[in-house]
Write a structure and sequence with these properties.
Organism: Lygus hesperus
Oligomer: single chain
Number of helices: 12
CATH topology of the largest domain: Sec63 N-terminal domain-like fold
Strand order of the largest sheet: 1-2
Number of domains: 2
Catalytic activity: ATP + H2O = ADP + phosphate + H(+)
CATH class of the largest domain: Mainly Alpha
Protein name: Putative helicase C550.03c
Largest sheet: 2 strands, antiparallel
Order of helices and strands: HHEEHHHHHHHHHH
Shape: elongated
Structural class: mainly alpha
Strand content: under 5%
GO molecular function: ATP binding; hydrolase activity; RNA helicase activity
Helix content: 55-70%
Keywords: ATP-binding, Helicase, Hydrolase, Nucleotide-binding
CATH architecture of the largest domain: Orthogonal Bundle
């Protein structure tokens, strides 16, 4: 029952009047319900205020990080801020990669390999390390990709250091320290049009379903990155990312039904 303030005022006036009234119970119930509503409202306001005060220091620290990195200047969102807003994961890392031209000298296939860190899960339960396998450097024979990986690692460390200076803890970024480029060679070979069966043999540490899901997720992530890159105004970068999407969006991975196709 929705109670209006005017109704409560009338009920109070009549309740305290000297004239006896027949609907005493109804008037009392209306007043009681109103008081309970006010009490509940006050309690909610208190809880919201306490929660806001608890989260405010973290908000303030994160805002200082954005200001330091020129995502926000004098409470005004800058170009990097608009770029980051288009990305759903590792926003600062990817934005810095774009504005620092990390992918400038990469081929579309190398872009796919580099950006695989976005979807790779280092603690995936199905990933098992083969100790007997010979350790081959990531992106072996691809100097531009190796350089891009190193530059990305530098960006990750810079952002982590910035957050630590502001007492901001990001488990998501800490996870990037756990061999985030383990999927790079596999995704690169898939982008180079290797067959799914050959790529699966390379990815023996992972289940087929997991690899399929990662490839599909990378396509969606690259679409976000393409959108963010367009904010910069240079068409070359989003065009390269779009070309990268085309190299991996193919074959059995994107068939309407994986199992019926098999």
């Amino acid at each position: 029952m929705k109670i209006k303030e005017e109704e409560v005022a009338d009920s109070l006036a009549e309740f305290y009047s000297e004239q006896p009234r027949e609907d005493f119970i109804e008037a009392f119930a209306k007043i009681f319900k109103w008081m309970e509503t006010v009490k509940g409202k006050d309690q909610l306001q208190k809880e919201v205020a306490e929660k806001t005060m608890t989260l405010y220091p973290e908000y303030a620290n994160k805002m200082e990080i954005l200001k330091t990195m020129n995502y926000v200047v004098e409470d005004s969102v800058q170009m990097k801020g608009y770029m980051a807003a288009r990305i759903s994961k590792y926003e600062l890392v990817i934005t810095e990669m774009l504005v620092r031209n990390v992918i400038k000298d990469l081929t579309p296939e190398e872009v796919a390999g580099l950006m695989s860190f976005i979807v790779y899960q280092a603690r995936a339960p199905s990933a098992q390390k083969d100790d007997s396998a010979e350790e081959i450097p990531i992106a072996h024979g691809l100097p531009n990709l190796q350089k891009a990986i190193e530059n990305t690692k530098i960006i990750i460390e810079e952002i982590i250091d910035e957050e630590k200076d502001r007492n901001v803890i990001s488990e998501e970024l800490e996870d990037l320290r756990k061999d985030p480029f383990k999927l790079t060679d596999i995704m690169y070979q898939w982008a180079k049009q290797k067959s799914f069966s050959k790529v699966i043999r390379m990815a023996k540490d992972f289940q087929e379903g997991m690899l399929v899901r990662w490839i599909q997720q990378l396509v969606e992530a690259l679409k976000e990155i393409e959108s963010a890159a367009r904010v910069m105004g240079d068409p070359a970068v989003p065009e390269k990312i779009q070309a990268s999407i085309k190299t991996i969006k193919r074959g059995i991975v994107f068939s309407p039904s994986l199992y019926t196709t098999l």
